[in-house]
Amino acid sequence: MYLTNCLKALFLPVIFTLTACGESVTFSPEQGDEKRYWVYAHTARDAEREPVTLMLSQSLVHYRVDQVGDTLKLHVTPEHLQLGVGSSGFSSIESPHGNDRIQQVFSSGFDLSLNGKSGELTDFKAKNTDQWQTFVAQGGQVLINGLQSTMNTPGFLQSIPVEEGSQIALPHFHGESATLTVQKVTEKSLFVTVSSQSEDDAKTQLYGQLEISRENGWFEKVLLVMNVPVEVFGATKMTQFALAMHPEEEPIGTFAEIFYNAYYDDERYWFDIPPLSEGKQAPVVLNLDDVLPYDRGMMYENHEGFQVAFATDLTEDTQIGKIVFRDASASSGGKPIDIALAFPLDQQFLDEQMNVSANVMPLGWSKQEAIKDIETISARVDYYDVSSKRHNVQWTQSEKQTFQLGDITLTATKVADTQNEYLLEYTDTEHSQLALDIGGMQGQISFLQPESLPQWFMPSAKQMFSYLGDPATTERTIAVKLSEAPTNVTFLVHSQSKDVSFSRDVVFVEKSLFLSSAEMPPMDVSPDYGYVVVESDIKKPSQNNTTFSFTGDLSLETESAQNAAVALPYEWENVCQFSIENAPEINGHKLVWKPQPMTNNDVAGAPSKIAKNSTAYQLMTPDGIRRYFYDLEVTTRLACEGKPSWGDVALTTSTFPWLIDVNTVEGFDKNQTLKQFVSRYRISDKSGQQLLPIDTHGNVFTVDDRPITEVLFDDTYIKMSGKISRAEYFKIEGEPLERTFVTTFPPLKKG
User: Fold this and answer.
1) Is the pLDDT of residue 606 over 90?
2) CB 212 within 8 A of CB 470
3) Residue 701 and residue 685: Cα distance in Å, rounded?
4) What 3-state DSSP class applies to 633?
5) What is the C-alpha to C-alpha distance for residues 633 and 19, in angstroms, rounded to an integer?
6) According to the model, what pLDDT value does residue 525 have?
7) Is 60 exceeded by the pLDDT of residue 546?
8) In this predicted model, which residue has the larger pLDDT, 75 or 254?
9) In what order do the strands lie in the sheet containing 488-496?
């Protein structure tokens, strides 16, 4: 019973088509018209008590008009289908494994005939007639009856006035009396709501928001929720169907994405009002070389299918617009592979290194073998610019005040019987969004949920409308409690470009090949576990400029007074040496200061913390066994050849600005170690952030005594963790420096 009702939801959109004529919208398609929709469905049982998810599905459904006139014939084909029913699942990508008949029936599609005037469903069958008859004979008639019960009308055949506030009665919408209301009219679309007239909780209830094209009448988007009473073992259980339908070019991903990306809570929570940053920063206009500097990226398999990613030339504080991946195709050996690909989320993902990525989902039926052959994925990447504008307004103590913030109208209404509590009501537009940080206001803020949604909605349905509801028709409400009455308030509005600002075709290469190639830009950079600099050091400006006092205290904190450790910055250790002058021998061994890369979390007696870009030295015997000393005074001489400084190094201009060709660097010592290279050269990007050498896996090299020749790409290049803007070389200035310092260890405590 539940499976039947679940599958009904997959076909609900087929009854929903319209068209436009003059000042009204009516459906009158032409033969050959077609359209594809992403359809997402969530079915839950016992909606009013303890909801239990019965099914999650996503499908790419192809609608084609085969005949018009007195009889309207449609062919409907699920070109991709993923189902999760209970603990089991089904994916059209995978081989049938016992579901071959279902696959053959669904993949061939269904033919529907409807009365062109009344919309009544007159015939329904699968294109694959042989398998269909067997399917019906083995119990599929239950499914047919369920589908026919939802398709006894073609939908909104009535003309819909192009006027906000207009209402139309729908006496037989899914067997219920419903009302269609025109909420908003734009140049291209009608935004309408459909709601049932029944207030009886024991009967079927429905509510939907729909966007209809004024040009051709086809639905653009559908959000629909239905509560249907179903009898189970003698008890009536309310089953809730939530359905979202988007055009092919605007996929969501999976219904689970709604749960991951949307937040809905009926409780009211209060937060401190986010302050607006002071001052006006000059807007940064990004260009192709900033956002899409390269025509190559990397790809790897994940749970969705694949993930593709490309490197940008952006800094962390850059305000970035919208990035859209589209027109994906796969190839192997330079030849196209016959498999459709889709980007299931119409949004970008940015990591800490400002790399952009997106999931790629293979589509179709039984495509597992084709997936194995994929070597590269190509796609078009579009960028839509974004801008921000501050709106300064005069705030008064009046009961109601209205502000025009560009395309957004905001109304502030004082809450009755309060001193400084207001409701801020506004509606974002398709391309403009009000930011949540506000200047000139101090106090607390709370985000109220829309009151227009039916109370019988489950949380998942509320999440769906919160995540996918059209911003142009969703009034948003913010409550504020002000600690003091403001006079001047600043609101911030973000606006996105309506048209594509620029684009690039990008080819994504398998990850291991991408990272191991010198010609591919650095990505997925992470420090080696043996490297002493933490990950944040890669992204922040180099600390090598930190002032170092030659005569200052060099000691580091250790776990006890019986240990000793000192530190030198990398550049100073190249020119300095420690020598112990008066310490006695311990068991026949002289004491030494030895480099200690680990802390006391790993080695007893080691430093508690080692400063970035520096080397720690611990006092010990040469064999490293004795590290604890008692009733001892040690005098150490620190002698340096001079003061280290940095001078610019001229690098040869390269097509690949992350590479250093060691053959072209004047005076480059090929016999130096990796540690010496890091100490002698300082490489940074355009924002002054330190760059570090990386290996063929994208990891920052461990700073050790390996010859530099072992880390070269193609025996020629050092690959850095970013785009090189400046290179500096270490040199010595001034006269030799020398000092001594005394380390004292207290005696062992008695008692």
Assistant:
1) no
2) no
3) 18
4) strand
5) 94
6) 65
7) no
8) 75
9) 386-394, 488-496, 432-434
- Strand pairing class (386-394; 502-510): unpaired
In the prediction, which pLDDT does 504 show? 97
Cα–Cα separations (whole angstroms), residue 279 to 282, 368, 390, 437, 485: 10, 55, 11, 14, 22
Q: For residue 126, what are the CA distances in angstroms to 16, 58, 105, 140, 666?
A: 20, 20, 6, 11, 74
Between CA 242 and CA 258 the distance in angstroms is 12
Distance in angstroms (rounded) separating the CA atoms of residues 85 and 592: 69
* 61 neighbors 40 (Cβ within 8 angstroms): no
CA atoms of 308 and 297, how far apart (whole Å): 7
The tokens of 170 are what? 């729908």
Give the tokens for residue 731: 């040199």
Q: How far apart are CA 92 and CA 88, in angstroms?
A: 14
CB 243 within 8 A of CB 224: yes
Helices (H) and strands (E) in the chain, counts: 12, 46
Q: Find the DSSP H helices in 623-730.
A: 674-680
What's the Rg (C-alpha) of the chain? Answer: 34
**pLDDT value, residue 51:** 72
Tell which wins on pLDDT, 248 or 142: 248
The answer on pLDDT for 219 being more than 90 is no
Q: Which of 449, 454, 461, 4 is nearest to 205 (CA)?
A: 454
What single-letter DSSP state applies at residue 140? I
20: helix, strand or coil: strand
DSSP string, 166-194: -EEEEEEETTEEEEEEEEEE-SSEEEEEE
CA 96 to chain centre: 32
- Helix then strand then coil, in percent of the chain rounded to 5, is 15, 45, 45
DSSP-assigned letter for residue 131: H
9 close to 56: Cβ distance less than 8 angstroms: no
Q: Closest Cα to residue 377, out of 402, 396, 399, 358?
A: 358
pLDDT at 143: 54
Q: Which of 157, 252, 260, 156 is nearest to 208 (CA)?
A: 156
C-alpha neighbours within 13 Å on the C-beta side of residue 76: 24
- Pairing state between β 526-527 and 699-700: parallel
Residue 450 per-residue DSSP state: P
- DSSP structure class, residue 750: P
Q: Which residue has the tokens 């269904």?
A: 110
The CA distance from 84 to 112, in Å, is: 26
User: Exposure string (b/e) for 677-705, b if CB count within 10 Å is 16 or more?
Assistant: bbbbbbbbbeeebbbbbbeeebbbbbbee
Find all residues with CB under 8 Å of 580, minimum gap 6, and list them.
Answer: 590, 591, 592, 593, 634, 635, 636, 637
202, two tokens:
């024991």
H-only helix segments in 498-626: 511-515, 536-539, 570-573
The model's pTM is: 0.76
Q: How far apart are CA 43 and CA 232, in angstroms?
A: 15
Residue 90 predicted with pLDDT over 80? no
Helices 2-11 and 141-150 sit at what angle, rounded to 10 degrees?
50
DSSP alpha helices (H): ranges in 71-176? 100-108, 129-135, 141-150
Angle at alpha carbon of residue 247, lines to 196 and 41, rounded to 5° = 50
Residue 2 CB burial class (10 angstroms; 0-12, 13-18, ≥19): middle
Q: What angle do CA 622, 626, 630 make, to 5 degrees?
A: 125
CA angle 722, 728, 734 (to 5 degrees): 155
